[in-house]
Each structure stands twice: as C-alpha cells, then as structure tokens.
C-alpha cells in the first residue's frame, strides 16, 4: 500500500472536480426545480384566472344581451304605441268617413226623392 502524496493529491483533485460537477448539477436541479415551481404556480394562477376571466366575459356578454333585449323591448313598445295611435287615427277617420258617406247617401236620397217628386208633379 503505497500511498504517495502525488496519488493523494491526484485523487483529491478528482474528488474536487466531481464535487464541483455534482454541485453544479445540484444547483442546476435546484434552479430547474425553482423554475418548474414558478411555472406551476403561474399555471395555477392562470388556471384560476382563466375561469374568472371567462366568467367576467360571460357576465359582460349576458349584460350586453340584456341591454339589447331592453332596447328591443323599448323599440317594440314604441312601435306598439305608434301602431295603437295609427289604429286610433284610422278608426276615427273611418268613423268620420262613414258619417260623411251617410250624409252623402242621405243627401243623394233626398235629391232622388225631390227629383222624383218634381218629375211626378211635372207629369201631372
């Protein structure tokens, strides 16, 4: 068993190099682990944020749809009121036209009777 100082120094240098390599590998693993942990944390945050964002998006869409429906109801109400007004005007106009037609018919009837009486008196 001959142990020389050179051999011990050579073995010590080899061990030191291996320790440095292992230290670098361990440090790399720690860095990768930390990076992976950050990614997982970011993914968790993104995972919880996405549904919240999606919920917000859905709420916005529902609110927009509600607003569109309110406007549609308002337009329908306005249009219904206009139709009701027009119908009332047409009914009034129809009534007045019927009265005018009745008056005109009565007047025509009176003229016929008058002309018939005049004609019959002229014949006599």
TrEMBL record:
<dbReference type="InterPro" id="IPR008555">
    <property type="entry name" value="SIKE"/>
</dbReference>
<dbReference type="Pfam" id="PF05769">
    <property type="entry name" value="SIKE"/>
</dbReference>
<comment type="function">
    <text>Physiological suppressor of IKK-epsilon and TBK1 that plays an inhibitory role in virus- and TLR3-triggered IRF3. Inhibits TLR3-mediated activation of interferon-stimulated response elements (ISRE) and the IFN-beta promoter. May act by disrupting the interactions of IKBKE or TBK1 with TICAM1/TRIF, IRF3 and RIGI. Does not inhibit NF-kappa-B activation pathways. Associates with the striatin-interacting phosphatase and kinase (STRIPAK) core complex, forming the extended (SIKE1:SLMAP)STRIPAK complex.</text>
</comment>
<protein>
    <recommendedName>
        <fullName>Suppressor of IKBKE 1</fullName>
    </recommendedName>
</protein>
<keyword id="KW-0175">Coiled coil</keyword>
<comment type="similarity">
    <text>Belongs to the SIKE family.</text>
</comment>
<comment type="subunit">
    <text>Interacts with IKBKE and TBK1 via its coiled coil region. Interaction with TBK1 is disrupted upon viral infection or TLR3 stimulation. Interacts with CDC42BPB. Interacts with SIKE1 which mediates association with the STRIPAK core complex composed of PP2A catalytic and scaffolding subunits, the striatins (PP2A regulatory subunits), the striatin-associated proteins MOB4, STRIP1 and STRIP2, PDCD10 and members of the STE20 kinases, such as STK24 and STK26.</text>
</comment>
């Amino acid at each position: 068993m001959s142990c020389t100082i050179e051999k011990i120094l050579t073995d010590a240098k080899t061990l030191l190099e291996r320790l440095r390599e292992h230290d670098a590998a361990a440090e790399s693993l720690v860095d990768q682990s930390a990076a992976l942990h950050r990614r997982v944390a970011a993914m968790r945050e993104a995972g919880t944020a996405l549904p919240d964002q999606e919920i917000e998006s859905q709420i916005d869409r529902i609110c927009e749809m509600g607003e569109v429906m309110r406007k549609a109801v308002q337009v329908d109400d306005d249009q219904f009121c206009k139709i009701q007004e027009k119908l009332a005007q047409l009914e009034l106009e129809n009534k007045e036209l019927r009265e005018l037609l009745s008056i005109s018919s009565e007047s025509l009837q009176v003229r016929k009777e008058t002309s018939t009486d005049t004609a019959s008196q002229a014949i006599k």
